[in-house]
Amino acid sequence: MKNSRSIHRFGVALAAFALCGLTASIAAATPSTQIWIPSTDIQPYKTVHLNFDTYLRANTNDDGSRTPPAVVIGPTFGVLPYEKIQAEVGFDVISAGGDADKYPLYGHFKLGMPEDNTWIPAVAVGMYNIGTKSGDVRNGELATNQDIAYALVAKTFPVIGRLSAGYFSGNKKVLVDENAKSDEKGVLLSWDRTMTEISDKLWVAVDYQGSNSAMGALSFGASWAFAKNVSVILGYDIYNNKKAGGENTVTMQLDINFP
């Protein structure tokens, strides 16, 4: 499973955050991920990974309006030439139809150790949604610096697939619940598997991010690798707290690796 999955890397994620008045909009910096949460996957040395992601609200808001779609585009670079220790860095430019579009740049990085054929799991630590606008959402200010730090472990099991678990902690001034109270920490959980019984090109995943901030969501989806270096994910995101995260989203994510 590990070898077939590495053919088509699924390096995308988004995070939602509450802005002034707790109006949810989508923004992200996208490390290699599952559907929503980070994964232990890391881009290989000298690989340039380009993601182009869209997020569409599945329903209208309570007042009948529809939140504009979010568009995320950006590269991720593999930067370490070692087999046992790997690293990636990257950034994204994001448009979500809100005031945060004035500060569209977000960064991310990840350092980790890949899984091997023994009992040793994959391990990864990193940060994402490193925004450029500081502020305190609790006071109604605009802010994009979620600055989420995380740690993950993952292990692949025969037939079952890969199981991942971890924890994250972000900026308590930005990650808040529907009552504007800090809720910046939570678990990270996922299951993913390449469906070799059907095709080595088909991959499915379910992931979960805790907290009642707009970051919290249960997501699931599937990917198809159209070529060795090109894949598309179709997924669905169910937010833990709709007053903080907004209506659920349908996501389509295009991933291209160079070379």
List keywords for this structure.
Porin, 12-stranded antiparallel β-barrel, disordered N terminus, 2 helices, globular, 47% strand, mainly beta, 259 residues
3D architecture notes:
With 259 residues, this protein is mainly beta. It has one domain: Beta Barrel (Porin), CATH 2.40.160. Helix content is 4%, strand content 47%. It has helices spanning 2-7, 242-245; strands at 15-18, 24-27, 48-57, 70-78, 86-95, 105-113, 122-130, 148-157, 161-169, 185-194, 202-209, 217-227, 230-239, 249-258. It has a twelve-stranded antiparallel beta barrel with strand order 3-4-5-6-7-8-9-10-11-12-13-14. Strand 4 (70-78) and strand 5 (86-95) form a beta hairpin. The longest helix is centred in the N-terminal third of the chain and has 6 residues, at 2-7. The protein is globular.
Describe the structure in brief.
The protein is mainly beta. The chain has helices at residues 2-7, 242-245, and strands at residues 15-18, 24-27, 48-57, 70-78, 86-95, 105-113, 122-130, 148-157, 161-169, 185-194, 202-209, 217-227, 230-239, 249-258.
Strand order of the largest sheet: 3-4-5-6-7-8-9-10-11-12-13-14
Overall domain count: 1
CATH class designation:
Mainly Beta
CATH topology: Porin
**Globular, elongated, flat, extended or rod-shaped: what is the shape?**
globular
Instruction: Tell me the strand percentage band.
Output: over 45%
CATH A-level architecture: Beta Barrel
How many DSSP-defined strands? 14
Mean pLDDT score, rounded? 87
Distance between the termini: 22 Å
- Helicity level: under 10%
What's the tally of helices? Answer: 2
CATH superfamily grouping = monomeric porin ompg
**Which structural class best describes the helix and strand composition?**
mainly beta
Secondary-structure element order, N to C = HEEEEEEEEEEEEEHE
Query: How does the major sheet shape up?
Result: 12 strands, antiparallel, barrel
Give start-end ranges of low-pLDDT stretches: 1-30
Q: Rg, please?
A: 17 Å
